[in-house]
């Protein structure tokens, strides 16, 4: 890689994709969205076109437009814009990787293809490598999310030896609950100065203890401020406060899950809490009842105001 690497750490918001009522991209929201994240949540890095952003439901052209808008509006304001480029077709992923490099993104990430699945970690490494060659100067992150892709072999197996085939490899975004595998990813990453970012927001404390370098998640869009307090308490060795915040956080997520928390409901919660118009989800996700989103938003606000 020809340029120096900014290590990805701290909280990263997995952003929602604002749509109009008619289901088209609503790029006018991106500028105010960035202001909201920085000023209200103290969150300065974003992960776009991922799960929360319904990236796999967008066209390649829409993904490019969105990535360009985030990079353009975020320039000089955001610390890092990471663009998820995972697709079913490697050609589409390569094109998105090339595009991300051309617009000044700070990094790219890929999930495993999930229709034709790689048979083993070697095949997945090869896929990631062939995408990375279209943006050889951009840090590449493997996005491990077996609950969505159904590709469940250990992320640590994917990392093993990857530096030999992908010079730009820079870490893993780990959305899974296997702490043994996560721990092995952290351990392997140490000698390469890679970042391991955790993606199960309600279990972050367990991952922090294992030494992850940050977290990428949907709830940091509207609870980033509180989780930043939790990270500070953790760094200061204040275990009681860290645990108390994590427990309260878990309570909010449990409440949300009992109401059927998914990307659709989450998106509406974001609209309710932030006042930004995120719009509906895209099919096959269905719009959710606003009353459920309002009930969760109230819990989020109570939690935020209580600290
Ligand atoms: C399966 C899923 O959507 N997980 C979320 C979490 O932030 C999740 O919404 C949160 O932990 C609440 O369960 C993130 O890991 C997803 C993410 O980072 C992304 O949008 O790419």
UniProtKB/TrEMBL annotation:
Keywords: Carbohydrate metabolism, Cytoplasm, Lyase, Schiff base. Pyruvate binds at residues 52, 216. The keyword Lyase applies. It comes from the Eukaryota. GO terms for molecular function: N-acetylneuraminate lyase activity. SUPFAM superfamilies: Aldolase (SSF51569). The active site is at residues 143, 173. One of its GO terms (cellular component) is cytoplasm. Its EC number is 4.1.3.3. PROSITE patterns: DHDPS_1. InterPro entries: Aldolase_TIM (IPR013785), DapA-like (IPR002220), Schiff_base-form_aldolases_CS (IPR020624). Its main location: cytoplasm. Belongs to the DapA family. NanA subfamily. Homotetramer. This is N-acetylneuraminate lyase.
